[in-house]
């Protein structure tokens, strides 16, 4: 199990760097074991350095930079061990237009191997979707599904 | 295992039975503030075994049962059913001959709760075992609730091991 | 000081109800003292009931409903004791288009008595502003002010 | 007291001196992710006396000093100056004859920090007293940081008294 953990750590770390540089057009990202000699108990640090910036604590990153860092990490976990579906509730809310487009492009690629359910208010994200479900409260206080045909949007 | 269908009845703001099928690719769920989008996320977490009322934004688990509206009385039960297709036989041995697997969870106002796999009663433990090693579960890395995107950054280093162990 | 507290409580409570019904086109909102007989130490509960829905705990409200409830309360504090400026960093992020427009309309009205600084990615909010400041990192890692003339947007 | 001008030098990503004037009405501050918008909010909270490094997203207060970039070395000092107009004489008595009041805060890498009111050195206590009862302050109800909109809902009932006492 120690060997399996180290293998997973290496693979996720590699993918994390790969996806992160795709999102930020450069920069560096990685995972760090706090106690390298104790892989079965060690805590994990996340390191992220956007392009052109000095390396600093991830707590100093902006709202959008944090969201993209987490999305890069989640997608790298997926590439190592695919999950049958993703459920992301307004994950695009902190992103500016350019980063929303990068996010949706990557989702589109990954959606060939997994189903994506995205709750969103963002028009760029809606345009990308294969299917659109509208939720409404035509009767106040009671939710129902409005089947929306994509051509109508 | 791919998600095929979600059926919600009496769970939070879904008073009437509502069914969703999930075509492949990307499905966007849209609607005005307060219409019930995040309640769908809560329904999926709940049927997969979520035990914390606070994680579902309630004070007690009873808060997930439809509590009435201007014109309707509260209902007595919440029920969510999630159906997966099992074409590639990824489910554990005892379920391998089923082409579909459905899990159901019910909660009554009395506090009684019931779990089902393919319509036969089971325990929560059976549902957790069913999804072991499939990447499906209420705490899976692939379910990110609203305003929760930064949890991996705000969490302690020890808590982050959990997601790596999941993929190991 | 007990009298002053009770007076402020009453005034904020009235304004909160007024502004909340403006935002939600109805519904009810208010403040509750947990210990009415001990105004100098009591905790304060926030009660909010969107139009057409039953009264429930505020924790069950949606992301957008919570944001509008807080904005109603903050603006009602302002009407009782004006603050010279408001600084809201992406407060419009959880709002849908309809609620964003209600929010910006109210801000426009209040901005006659107070300055508003709004960080935003939302085009509806940008259109409302009297002045637009662009922040850029033309030199990577270094922020600078891009003076933007509103007509250029 | 109305805000007239904000000057930032060496604070977070603002390596060069940057000045903002605040016309009346609504000012929208826009720009791509990570460009420095929230750093402006932090600069205003900091000059008004914020003492918690964590509230400014750092681990130690030194994290607010410009830490370098691809082409620049870290600087040795962070400085923020906020200037108010005092036309209606709302400021406390000893400042009532000034038509403008400016507060400045500096932090050096050595850990030394300095406060100024109208260019003369003072203590943090003087700045807090200056703003007493004006509605201005790093914890004022009218400053809402990013992702912080729900703090009033998520806080405990006792913590909410604070905002009512501010207006009482
Ligand atoms: N048990 C319940 N019975 C009836 N209604 C409920 C129940 N629990 C929650 N609700 C209602 O559901 C609504 C919240 O729905 P939800 O959080 O899914 O909205 P949303 O579509 O995600 O909105 P947003 O875009 O603002 O995030 C609230 O108005 C709440 O009152
Ligand atoms: N001391 C410092 N020295 C240099 N750069 C810093 C310092 N502290 C923070 N930063 C940088 O400032 C950037 C964050 O800026 P900020 O949070 O203001 O962005 P923002 O414009 O609000 O973006 P968003 O739209 O994503 O919220 C980070 O990339 C961070 O590395
Ligand atoms: Mg929601
Ligand atoms: Mg920001």
What's the topology here?
The complex is a heterotetramer, with 2 copies of chain A (153 residues) and 2 copies of chain B (168 residues).
Chain A: H1 2-23, E1 28-33, E2 44-49, H2 63-80, E3 85-89, H3 97-110, E4 115-119, H4 123-128, E5 131-139, E6 142-148
Parallel strand pairs in A: 3-4
Antiparallel strand pairs in A: 1-2, 5-6
Helix pairs in contact in A: 1-2
Chain B: E1 2-9, E2 18-21, E3 26-30, H1 37-47, E4 77-85, E5 100-108, E6 113-117, E7 120-122, H2 124-130, E8 143-144, H3 151-154, H4 157-167
Antiparallel strand pairs in B: 1-2, 1-4, 4-5, 5-6, 6-7
> What is the number of E strands of chain A?
6
Beta strand % of chain A: 15-25%
Helix/strand structural class of chain B: alpha+beta
How many DSSP H or I helices of chain B?
Answer: 4
Tell me the Rg of chain B in angstroms.
Answer: 16 Å
The helix content of chain B is 10-25%
What topology, given as strand order, has the largest sheet of chain B?
A: 2-1-4-5-6-7
What share of residues are in beta strands of chain B?
Answer: 25-35%
Low-pLDDT stretches of chain B are none
The whole-number mean of residue pLDDT values of chain A reads 93
Structural class of chain A: alpha+beta
> What is the rounded Rg of chain A?
18 Å
Oligomerization state: heterotetramer
């Amino acid at each position: 199990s120690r060997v399996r953990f180290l293998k997973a750590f290496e693979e996720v770390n590699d993918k994390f760097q790969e996806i992160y540089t795709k999102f930020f057009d450069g920069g560096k990202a990685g995972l760090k074991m706090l106690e390298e000699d104790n892989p079965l108990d060690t805590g994990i640090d996340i390191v992220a350095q956007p392009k052109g910036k000095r390396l600093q604590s991830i707590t100093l990153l902006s709202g959008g930079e944090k969201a993209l860092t987490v999305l890069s990490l989640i997608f790298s976990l997926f590439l190592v061990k695919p999950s049958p579906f993703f459920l992301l509730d307004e994950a695009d809310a902190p992103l500016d237009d350019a980063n929303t487009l990068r996010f949706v492009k990557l989702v589109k690629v990954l959606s060939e191997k997994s189903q994506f359910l995205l709750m969103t208010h963002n028009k760029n994200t809606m345009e990308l979707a294969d299917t659109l479900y509208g939720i409404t409260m035509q009767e106040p206080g009671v939710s129902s599904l409005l089947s929306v045909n994509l051509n109508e949007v | 295992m791919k998600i095929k269908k979600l059926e919600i009845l009496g769970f939070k703001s879904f008073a009437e039975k509502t069914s969703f099928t999930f075509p492949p690719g990307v499905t966007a769920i849209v609607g005005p503030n307060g219409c019930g989008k995040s309640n769908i996320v809560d329904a999926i977490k709940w049927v997969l075994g979520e035990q914390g009322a606070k994680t579902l934004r309630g004070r007690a688990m009873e808060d997930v049962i439809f509590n009435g509206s201007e014109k309707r009385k509260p209902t007595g039960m919440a029920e969510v059913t999630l159906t997966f297709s099992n074409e590639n036989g990824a489910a554990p041995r005892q379920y391998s001959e089923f082409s579909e697997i459905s899990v159901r969870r019910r909660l009554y106002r009395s506090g009684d709760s019931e779990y089902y796999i393919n319509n036969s009663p089971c325990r929560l433990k059976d549902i957790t075992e069913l999804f072991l090693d499939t990447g499906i579960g209420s705490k899976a890395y692939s379910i990110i609730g609203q305003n929760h995107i930064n949890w991996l950054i705000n969490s302690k280093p020890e808590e982050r091991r959990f997601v790596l162990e999941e993929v190991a």
